[in-house]
User: Fold ABC transporter related protein from Pseudofrankia inefficax.
Amino acid sequence: MLPARSVVPGRPPPAGRDRHPAAVRAANAAPVARFPTGNVSAMADTIVSLDAVSVRRDGAALLSDVRWTVTAGQRWVVLGPNGAGKTTLLLVAAGRLFPTAGAVDLFGSRLGSVDMRELRYRVGLVSSALTETPPPEERVLDVVLTAAWAVFGRGYERYDEIDMARAAGLLRQFGCGALVDRRFGTLSEGERKRVAIARALMTDPELLLLDEPAAGLDLGAREALLRRLTRFAADPTAPAMVMVSHHVEEIPVGVTHALLLRDGRVVAAGPVQETVTAGPLSECFGIPLDVTVNGGRFTARLAPRPPRPRAAAPA
Ligand SMILES: Nc1ncnc2c1ncn2[C@@H]1O[C@H](COP(=O)(O)OP(=O)(O)OP(=O)(O)O)[C@@H](O)[C@H]1O
Assistant:
């Protein structure tokens, strides 16, 4: 259903695209900087829940018996080596991939029993696994703005001043305020990642999923991104967040929980300070690791070998 206020008479939206009420809710909110997620009393609500979820493809087990719940206000990091199933897990949580076995509840609705197009608008997903990417010639402001209609490329959709303000505000929040008129294709990798996050937030999602947001960034760009994500994590009105990473160094301060995956199975899950520790992390990556925490940031390195026992002196 199209809200009347977003329709330009005689100019229908692109075929098959409706503007979701989430976008209207965003548009009606105070212009940006904060991310209203509705009733504060709903903060304990379950956002996404996986019960005994398995995913098999071509005989391979991508996920096996995963049990995991994300509630409003939580900020999760999903860690694991290459091929552990992190992206698969994120796509399941986004309602874009159906499990082979088990049950997934997203915003209280069981996957498979509801129209997923409705629920997907309530999830902001940034992943290179998505095939659609912004056209290189698209203006940065429009890359964010067009998320309100779930399209790439400005067409006949109508946008209100408040939509523009929200898009510009999100770009400012992620340090891209000076880039609004640039062509997307001219941005650096770090700038693109931050613009992609701003776009994912345009529809005021209740769940933000970031797949390796810091991958490929140089040290400065990584730290700039982590600073933004730290602020985001500290905002009590921001949506629940799940980010995937290979590196504990990429965990922003403010992440509350961690899930460690290996070979599609959960090695450990729980509060980040209890989970990102030497034991579970070593099991997850299959090597002995030492973990240190400094100012809320994590570092992992290969544990030094224990000293060899001395040979007994000859009698
Ligand atoms: N259709 C398929 N058939 C067989 N195996 C598959 C198929 N699709 C994916 N896989 C395998 O599933 C595993 C999990 O993939 P996934 O992309 O979820 O891992 P990941 O943890 O995100 O990896 P990375 O960190 O390298 O991005 C990988 O080993 C991948 O090769």
In short: The longest strand covers residues 46-57. The pocket of adenosine-5'-triphosphate is lined by residues 57-58, 60, 62, 80, 82-88, 246 (CB under 6 Å).
